[in-house]
Amino acid sequence: MNSADPNTTDASALKLPATAAQQGIWFGQEMDPTSPMYNTGECVVVCGALDVDLLEVAVRRVLADAEALHARFVRDEDGVLWQDWARRPRWPFHVLDLTAEPDPVAAAEAWIAADMARPTDLAAGPLVTEAVLRTGAEEYRWYQRIHHIAVDGFGAAMVLRGVAELYTALANGEEPSGPGFGRLSTVVDEEAAYLASDRFGRDRDFWTTHMADSPEPVSLAEGVPSVSGDVLRRTLLLPAEEAARLQRVAAGARASWSDLALAISAAYVARVTRAKEVVLGLPVMGRMGSAALRVPCMVMNIVPLRVPVDTGRSLLDLTGEVAAQVRRTRPHHRYRHEQLRRDLRMVGTERRLFGPVVNIMPFDYRLRFGEHQGTMHNVSAGPVEDLSLGIRLMADGGLRVELDANAALYRPDVLTTHLNSFATFLRAALDAPEEPLGHARMTRTVTLAELRRARAEAPCPPVGDTTAAAPDVLALVRERVRLTPDVIAVEQGERRLSYAELFSAAERCARRLVAARVRVDTPVAVLLPRGPEIVVAILGVLLAGAGYLPLDPGWPDSRLNGVLDDAGGPLVVTDADHAHLVAGRPTLLVGGQEDSRSDMDSPHRTPLPEVPGEALAYVIYTSGSTGVPKGVLVSRAALASFVAAATERYGITASDRVLQFAAPHFDASIEELFGALTTGATLVLRTEDMLESVPRFLDACAEKGVTLVDLPTAFWHEVAHGMDAGEGELPASVRVVIIGGEAALHDRVERWHRRVGPSVRLFNTYGPTEATVVTTAALLRHVG
């Protein structure tokens, strides 16, 4: 082995063998050399008058001391992979002033996205790109892209922190010697010594025994996990109260907050998949007690964490089990997961080692650049085989949750659903940490079929014998069709349906349902993607006298079939693209030629039924945060009462353009859908690209002339924060913002009011699904 210092002048000595971690990444990149999937990126937002020239000096000096960033990777005739410094590739330092752009932040994000999409040639380099993008008078984005073969997340953070510290010292007139990084050769030598030691053999024996009888890892996706070049990301910032609760509950369990977070993650995966044992992937730093603690390089490992989820035990018990598993495996964390997979293959155990990866991130994401504050934002952490859940405590006390997913396995809306469901599950788990995981409060009450049987014993009153004080929602929609038939009722991109077109299509759907012998006061499932067709189907089900049960096409097969079985196997309204998800079940296909045929002009057309107010309007299944999903039945009278109250409270009129943000299987969608259609407003269906960033969301709302938005509080927090950071402004068209699901942060509300002024009304709402969408709505006013 040649472990010479790469800073020496002997060209023959300027190379080191690649480490095991680097070899795994090299082989992965070789499978598709043109893929950018192993690019990792960090963006530091600096607020203040940054000295760009001084920053470049600091960056170049620190990077010069980080040897792993300057290697080229070559394989010799014997198949040995080397990292070679005989010719250090030149790396660029870009400086761009984007302040003249219409949207500087969006321009910066586009530039970063384009750079992240560039593949890296490991044989030629460079492995790193640096850039400073000016996005405001005193706002800069320092961006760093490094190939994963050079550094892991801890190593990248070391470089960023080293640059910030050197910049600050130089700005203060000091002349430090450098960041003090260790030599990469010590890491290579240390690994060689480990591979030749008895400890390596003991670690191999431990893991092969530990994993010999492990179950097949479960996934929240339907496809087969595999490395993909595209990664989707969704983030959620939970308030400081939740982080404090997490720490308090962990202290009560005599465990760390990270152990508790792992236990909650395992319980969530088990709840969704109904697995009795979950095998998570646990990223480990691999640096404690090692020379790598001072060396920016790639040494991070992922180890399997087996978690039996016994529903008879509590979350506190599960946390103790997780903590014990981590303690038991910790002495063996150095053993590479790639090697373990090869070992198990040798003994005939060919399977993935783990399912979703849960990354507890301990880094402090704040940096100081002289007198200016900087905050690190991860752009990409590299490829994701299946799903990666990141959890970290923020400097301001909040709890940040990130979901990265393989784009080949998860749709954006499905990922958003999982993120919101996990947050809800986390809160519920912290509410009842001592209750058994199988307790009714933690799992379920009764099935929908049981509720339907109970209702059958108390049949609906005769038509007209109803106590509903509010008019039926269908009657209100019919009136809008009569008064304004040509007004646009539903809009998505370039697709538009007038009120007349919408109701005509809904009636055709209803007659087909009645002809299919759908009965009044029974559920009909609707399995369609977000679009005008699902609005038509919902109205069609109601016109047929049934109650609609919205399903998400992105749900795992276990959840989809679990809900349908629990509901008693109802008819499913779907289209040709999704019919395979419910193969073998009774279906009604829409969207094809059959859907376009109408018996409206036939003298023998199928009549539509009269429906009592206490008949079923819809069924919403809860997320399962306090147990497996349970069906909540809501009557037409309850729906009518809620819609009347909501439209009056928010002041919705025919001139409004209401954004339909929530997924149809969330009850917030009811507030949006019927709030618009019963008043003659236009329902603007959200598209997935609106969720890509705060600027894109605000720009899309402005482009579509949205006047009313109804957002989860956590997403509104992100929007408000983005506006504070200069990432966009609330469109002038917006007059009402409704947030719900949790309390709004006081300081965020105050800053919001100071920014947007009193002309925009901000409502904070709350209500359990069982109580028909919303039970309380508070108008948040500026009190500063």
TrEMBL record:
Domain of life from the UniProt record: Bacteria
Domain Condensation residues, every copy: 16-445
Residue ranges constituting the AMP-dependent synthetase/ligase domain according to the UniProt record: 478-776
Positions of transmembrane segments: none
Protein name: Non-ribosomal peptide synthetase component F
